[in-house]
Design goal:
The protein is of the alpha/beta class. The protein contains 13 helices and 14 strands. It has a nine-stranded mixed sheet. Bound molecules: nicotinamide-adenine-dinucleotide (NAD).
């Protein structure tokens, strides 16, 4: 690869009216190391063309089908370097497999696949291809999540005893899918979404945050999934008890029928000496409380923060960073992973960037939670 050229990204999904595809473009391009040059943005050729136009790409590179994109791009000397997958979940595996087979690295939105067996197949494909794969658990990109992770890793909290994670949304409080609303429609269709509704859509984010920040793996769980809204085909509300390595216990509460809530993700980790408390809707403040000391409020951008937090901070304190900047941190680390891969490094994906292992664990979490709920009992992870 020539020196410092931008990485070329091809997108699958992200057509007109899509939620996360345009966010991927903004985040990927924020640091000037990546550019969107191609896409199969929709399953409709016309809509894919319209999206390509709105994104300002060469009209000849707005494809009607992702397989056509991979085939045509392979033949170009300015071909895409990697593919971002921003489609409904059931397409994550086939698109990722086809991309890897064609020699393109992958950034996929979560959950990794639609089912747990698919995640194992994807893991095998990633290993076989030997190409970088990243999973956009966006919240891992916030500087104060990195600070929380560094505090846990430092041992300052002492042994971790309890973790409480909640992710509360209210947008599915009514049967929105019956109105044809696009995001609600595929999320409540098991064939497009997979078997875990709310537990898959936002439960995997909450689960990932627990393991990512605490550094502890969940070893067993007892979950209760419910469908609150009449006629809905998948769960929309879930509570789970967790046991973690080291003997800590956890509580996970996720819901998409928590009326009035927006994107209420909150993580609390309690150790023997103190605790941390982070909320996604107030992401530039991290509360740290000590059993024998005053409560601290750490601010994003603070010069006193850990190296891990400062490494992903763009602005001085008092200048809020948010969702897109956090997303962009993952893309910056992915660009680093691509550089490392080009240099021939054996493990190019940095430990801070969620990868295929996080993807497999997330899908296992959904599968185990459904099993536990059906059996009304604890299950091993
Ligand atoms: P969406 O319905 O808004 O967008 C999906 C897009 O995929 C649409 O443009 C649709 O036309 C396109 N698509 C469907 N089939 C296609 C095909 N065969 N070829 C090409 N394009 C096709 O959905 P969304 O809310 O943006 O979610 C997309 C994915 O992103 C999901 O997996 C979801 O879980 C994930 N997501 C992640 C986050 C996050 O915080 N990381 C947030 C929202 C959504």
């Amino acid at each position: 690869m020539e020196e410092r050229r931008k990485l070329r990204m091809g997108m699958v999904g992200g057509g007109p009216g899509a939620f996360i595809g345009p966010v991927h473009k903004m985040a990927a391009e924020l640091d000037g190391r990546i550019e969107l040059v191609a896409g199969a943005f929709s399953q409709s050729a016309e809509r894919s063309r319209a999206a390509g136009e709105s994104f300002g790409i060469d009209p000849g590179r707005a494809y009607a089908d992702y397989r056509e994109m991979f085939e045509k791009e392979r033949g170009r000397n300015d071909a895409i370097d990697f593919v971002v997958i921003a489609t409904p979940n059931s397409l994550h595996l086939p698109v990722a497999e086809a991309a890897l087979e064609a020699g393109f690295a992958v950034v996929s939105d979560k959950p990794a696949t639609a089912t747990y067996p698919e995640a194992l197949a994807l893991e095998a494909a990633v290993v076989k291809a030997g190409l970088p794969y990243a999973l956009t658990h966006t919240y891992a990109g916030y500087s104060l999540v990195r600070e929380a992770r560094a505090i846990c890793a430092s041992g300052k909290l002492g042994a971790i005893r309890k973790i409480a994670v909640e992710y509360l949304q209210g947008w599915l409080s009514k049967p929105l899918e019956q109105t044809g609303q696009k995001q609600a429609a595929w999320r409540s269709d098991p064939a497009l979404n997979g078997p875990g509704g709310c537990i898959g859509d936002i439960g995997t984010h909450a689960f990932h945050l627990v393991e990512y920040v605490s550094g502890l793996e969940v070893t067993s769980l007892n979950a209760a999934l419910r469908t609150v809204v009449a006629g809905r085909r998948l769960d929309d509300d879930c509570n789970a008890l967790l046991r973690l390595k080291s003997g800590a216990s956890g509580v996970l509460m996720v819901s998409q029928v928590a009326a009035g809530e927006g994107n209420g993700l909150r993580l609390r980790v309690y150790g023997e000496n103190g605790s941390i408390d982070w909320r996604q809707e107030d992401p530039n403040r991290l509360r740290v409380k000590w059993v024998d000391g005053a409560e601290e409020i750490r601010h994003a951008g603070g010069s006193y923060l850990s190296e891990e937090a400062r490494a992903v901070t763009r602005l001085p304190g008092g200048h809020p960073e948010g969702f897109i900047e956090a997303f962009a941190v993952l893309y910056r680390e992915f660009a680093d992973a691509m550089d490392a891969w080009w240099r021939g490094e054996a493990n190019p994906v940095p430990a801070t960037l969620p990868g295929i292992r996080a993807g497999v664990r997330g899908m296992r979490f959904i599968e185990r939670a459904i099993e536990s709920s059906g059996r009304e009992s604890w299950v091993e992870f």
